[in-house]
Amino acid sequence: MYGTGILKGLSVTIKHFIDTYVEDIKYLGRRVLKTGESFQERQGVASRGLYTVQYPEEKIAVPERFRFVPFLVVEDPDHPERPGDDWCTSCGICSKVCPPQCIWIVRGEDPVTKRPIPQPEAFFIDIDICMNCGFCAEFCPFDAIKMDHDYELASYDRTGNHIYDKAKLSKPFSYWYGIAPTTATEEAADRGGWEHSDVIKDMKKKGQPATPVSIPYPEVRAEWATAAASGAPAAAAVVEAAPAEDESEKAARLERRLEALARKRARDARLGIQ
Amino acid sequence: MSELDLRELHNTEFPVPADMQNNVAITSLSRIYNWSRRSSIWPMLFGLACCAIEMIATAASRYDTARFGMEVMRASPRQSDLMIVSGTVTKKMVVPIVRLYNQMPEPKYVLAMGACASGGGPFKEGYNVVSGIDQYVPVDVYVPGCPPTPQALIYGLIALQRKIDGQSLANMDDVPWYGVGPSDPVPIPILGPDIIDPRQMELIRQQAERAAGAAGKGTRDLPAAVMDIGKPRTVPTVESVTAEVKQEAGVPAVEAPKAEPAAEVDPEKAARIAKREAALARKRAAQEKGEN
Amino acid sequence: MVDQAILPAALDSGDVQTAINHLKEMYPGKVQDDTRQGYSGVIIDRSVLVEAATAIRDKLGFNYLSSVTGVDYLGFGDHLEVVYHAYRITGGPALVFKAQTPRDNAEVPSLIEVYPGADLQEREAYDLMGIRFHGHPNLKRILLWEGFNGHPLRKDWKEAYYEQEHKPFDSRWPAGYARRAEELTVFGKNVQYPADLDLSRLSDTTESQLYSGMGLGVDVQDEVTSEGIKTDRLVVNLGPHHPSTHGVFRMVVELNGETVENLEPVMGYLHRNHEQIGERNAWNHNMPFTDRLDYISGMSNNLGYALAVEQLLAHGARYTPPTYRAEVIRVLMVELTRIVNHMWAIGFLLNDLGAFFTPALYAISERERILDFFEATAGSRMMPNYMRFQGVARDIPERIRSTANQLNDRVRDFNTMDYLTELINERIPGAIDELDRYLSDNEIIKARTIGVGYLPKDMAIAYSAAGPVLRASGVPYDVRRAEPYSIYPELDFDVAVRYNGDIYDRYLIRLDEMRESVRILKQVLPRLEATKGESVFAGNKAIYMPRVPLGEAYGRVENPKGELGFYVISQGDPKGPQNPWRYHVRAPSFINLTALGQMSKGHKVADIVAILGSIDIVLGETDR
Fold first, then answer.
1. Could you give the CA distance from residue C168 to residue A97 in angstroms, rounded to a whole number?
2. pLDDT digit string, tens, across residues C362-375
3. Exposure of A6 in the CB half-sphere (CA atoms within 13 A)
4. Among A78, A89, A274, C15, which residue's Cβ finds the most Cβ atoms within 10 Å?
5. What is the distance in angstroms between the Cα of A13 and the nearest Cα belonging to chain C?
6. What is the pLDDT of residue C332?
7. Confidence class of residue C333 from pLDDT cuts 50, 70 and 90?
8. Which residues of C touch A2 (CB under 8 A)?
């Protein structure tokens, strides 16, 4: 009969319409609570309704590998030995591998001897050229340039704002760990420690062990922070402690880790992640 | 009433009688005008390139621009308030874009979506690509990214709303369309041997004369001193370049000098060196302590 | 040499070498083997090109001309070369034939009479290379405009922002200086003008050139039909910002009443110089640029380019083919992309038919779920930049997990394999069935689409149509089966084919293909589980400037929109800068448009939009 096809089609639209409400009822309590709990399900693969992300009141957090404009990794500002030091050695690979050639690097120079030093003098990225491809981060041998997750960059004027210089690009390592903990840990494992690969090399030469990846970075950082506060260089303290590490310290460390884990679990439970 | 002074209407300090205190709300005309305008921005329904796909995804159910009153995408420029330049602007396409912009009724806004529309993007070096739509029409908001995700675009749209909120009926210099009379249309570029911006005619003529005189090399001479490091730079305007060209007329092309490292140590660097030395000293001290 | 007589009946099968031998026999002295290092095929003297091509089509059976392009061998023989890749529609490798011409006054006979599919491609070669195709009825510029100065793909042509012959540019390191390219040109813009530019004689002729010969002005003729009704010929312009042209495509149609008599596609509004930039780029640099060709199916484009360069790399000693897991992941990505694309295509075809936005909304909503996976794996929703030569960039993550770092961020965390299993086994098949139920029986859709935009089988082959357009016309040609790549030979799937060649069949075949993709994906899932933990990259991943051996390669994949081919040439000093000498994209969207005029003739003007929608073009690829 003419018209049945249309009716069949309309039943699909009705189903879509109802689906959303049926699921709404399912999530009702949690939805009202405005927590992330129902978000995971609503924006997941099993949800049948059509749900809107209420940006900017709620935002879909971007995944770890998400790529937006690059940034430069520097040491944390409260690092006891190398506060704010660049990880970049100005080797130039990122600028060479950049497809649209949007990276400009001026290699550092020792002010006295005029010899090149492994530190960029200046670093510019034109984000109006950058194609967010992630090659710079992928091929950087020092894990010094990474793709940022901050996409809220809209501006009213581009002439001044859209060439990012070193100051604007530099972000501490803890930021990188914060946005991509899994990747950062994998990379650190490849380097053989939480430090920059050159630092690890130096430490090896001196017979010092690098900070092992088995300790999560937030703890390492906390240790560094206390070391910086007490004025004693952390690495040395670790080195001194390492050979003579007795049972009590081991137990203390274990306790700290368990505490951190519990904190994490609590947070996860709050956010509805298993 | 011959001349209406809009500044009067901007006043929110109007004294409300006590008995009407709860029944009357006072707002400025600008505010309510801007509020209604920013809550019903109708974008033009046209997409250029990759970013257009993200723009459509933004308008679709997951992100939904209807929440901002922007879901009514009009295919006709006559009915739209906002042009989202979503993608690479080619020389061939900039002609229709300028024409569309001129056909939009005021107040009108332009949002450059993505790296290409803002400044040429990865295709900037290409011979057929315009390095930024702002070279032809004024842009209100730039959204970087290649392509910007729907969330980034919405952030840009909110930025545009904020901009509209900040506009004032009282200040006519700020917003041309609150003034009297129509504003001038943007001259439409011409497709000649390359794209020709009518605003640059004079400069092009001078360059052509120069090229004819000086062995056909004139078109690629560089304005001097473009190369030194770190200083904020502006795109040369027609006037500045014209002035420079006039100054240099007849002088053969000079290679722009390579960047010289700054003679004086800049303070940032000095601070860094000091910091390094301090750290080094600490390290040495620690080592000595360890040895003793 | 061929000793035994070859029976004509056996000619349209058999291997390519036999065909070449026969061709040499037919045209002694005029057909030579291409003996350059790493090259294949034959060089045909241009004086006999048309006859030879006819023989290649009719006698040897290579009736499907896939790609036509030009190459400028400046400094390597100083000639221009036109390269043709012809295939048998029954499958098998290509017969590559070439014709050479001097750079000055370059001219080659047009093959449009033999292969009508050469039409737009020859115009492109004329536009960008300056090769005149003798006998082409409409040899006008296609991507640029009439009056553009020079032919940009010639090796001695320099663009306004020219910096250096090859990337990486020296100014970037170690003494880089940040500056915008605008600052280096006098005009502050990406423009350059010839020395003899005379502004007083300047006039914009692009529009008048376009409309000339289309029955405008004094040429308008009144026609009196048999009923005595007078109708005027009318020229109507659609685009380039028409909402239903899927971007910035433009059509100029000549109408008699409401009926289309003639249609001229006008393109180039998104010509962003992909090929020229590709030739400045190093080999690796091109990978993210391919994302932006067909920007709805970036993953497939990646694969095509990777396959082409891998063919070249395979000439070298240190090449190791991609690992099995890499191949599995590639197929996973490509087939998901096919679903993304077809969902989008159907949604927007319905948009064009007037079902404004509801089908598209449903399609986009499904697409978002797949993009979530792409984003977690490759880092970007649309521009994955995921494939590498000899593998893929990274393994798929253990968990699709977000980290909160913005204000108000809502975190999601899924197990990737669970997510994929749910997606492939439940969600996508459900969505396809739903689309089917929703649209296929709809009387309005049937009335609008059945019998409209008919493309007969032989014409589809002749016009070099590809992908769903070709298969909806009854030609079961799919590169995944005709010249298999990756792990497709071991996968069980059918080549979807429909026989009516109209819009409705092109819609149905997309549903069929999505179902076949789901079938493939279901076979991919256990393979993904089985290879867990294996390497996804063969060889040394840290090499950022791979050295590519000399030679030419044509890599092609079955993209959602049709056959995507990459013709790449590695030439020059093996120790010098490493970049493609020629980088050509055989874009299915572009070549499928060749048949648009044919399909539209005799239909109403409202149908053209639907016909265009059924071809499913994307302008990033059409104009490149």
1. 7
2. 888 888 889 999 99
3. 9
4. A89
5. 8
6. 92
7. very high
8. 443
Q: Does one domain contain both A169 and A79? A: yes
Q: Which domain holds residue A31?
A: 1-60
Query: Which residues in C lie closer than 8 A to residue A138 (C-beta atoms)?
Result: 393
Distance from CA of B144 to the nearest CA of A (A): 6
Cα–Cα distance between C362 and C512 in angstroms, integer? 18
A113 and A192 both lie in a single domain: yes
User: What residues of B are in contact with residue C149 (Cβ under 8 Å)?
Assistant: 193-194
Q: CA C378 to CA C383: how far, in whole Å?
A: 8
Span between the terminal Cα atoms of chain A, in Å = 52
State the DSSP code for C427.
I
Does one domain contain both A126 and A76?
yes
Q: Do B50 and C383 touch (CB under 8 A)?
A: yes
Q: Please name the residues in contact with B1: beta carbons below 8 A apart, sequence gap of 6 or more.
A: none
Same-domain pairing of A46 and A131: no
CB contact under 8 A, B282 and A81: yes
| Cα Rg, chain C, nearest whole Å | 25
**Cβ contact B237–C188 (<8 Å):** yes
Q: Report, at the CATH architecture level, how domain C4-134 is classified.
A: 2-Layer Sandwich (3.30)
In a domain, A270, yes or no: no
The per-residue pLDDT for range B15-69, each reduced to its tens digit, is 667 777 777 666 677 788 888 888 888 988 888 888 888 988 898 888 888 888 8
Q: Within a domain: residue A7?
A: yes
Residue A236 within any structural domain of the chain: yes
Residue C400 near chain A (CB below 8 Å): yes
Q: Do the strands A145-147 and A116-126 form a parallel or antiparallel pair, or are they unpaired? A: unpaired
Q: Is the CB of C171 inside 8 Å of chain A's CB atoms? A: yes
C-alpha closest to that of A199 among A89, A70, A91: A89
Q: CB neighbours of C597 closer than 8 A, spacing ≥ 6?
A: C262, C263, C264, C265
DSSP letter (8 states) at residue C426: I
Question: Do A53 and A111 belong together in one domain?
Answer: no
Which residues is B113 bridged to in the sheet? B86, B143
Q: What subunits make at least 3 CB pairs under 8 angstroms with A? A: B, C
Chain C touched by B125 (CB under 8 Å) = yes
Domain boundary residue among A36, A60, A84? A60
In degrees to the nearest 10, what's the CA dihedral of C243, C246, C250, C253? -80
Residue in A13, A104, A149 closest to C177 by CB: A104
- Nearest-Cα distance to chain C for B256, in Å, is 9
Residues A49 and A104 in one domain: no
Within the 229-288 window of chain B, which residues sit less than 8 Å (CB to CB) from chain C?
229-230, 233, 235-238, 241, 245, 256, 258-259
Domain check: are A55 and A76 in the same one? no
CB A210 within 8 A of CB A218: no
Q: What is the pLDDT of residues C27-54, one digit of tens each?
A: 888 888 888 888 888 999 888 889 888 9
Residues A238 and A114 in one domain: yes
Q: What's the domain count of chain A?
A: 2
User: Which sign does the torsion angle of CA B98, B102, B105, B109 carry?
Assistant: positive
Taking the mean position of all CA atoms in its chain, how far away is CA A90? 21
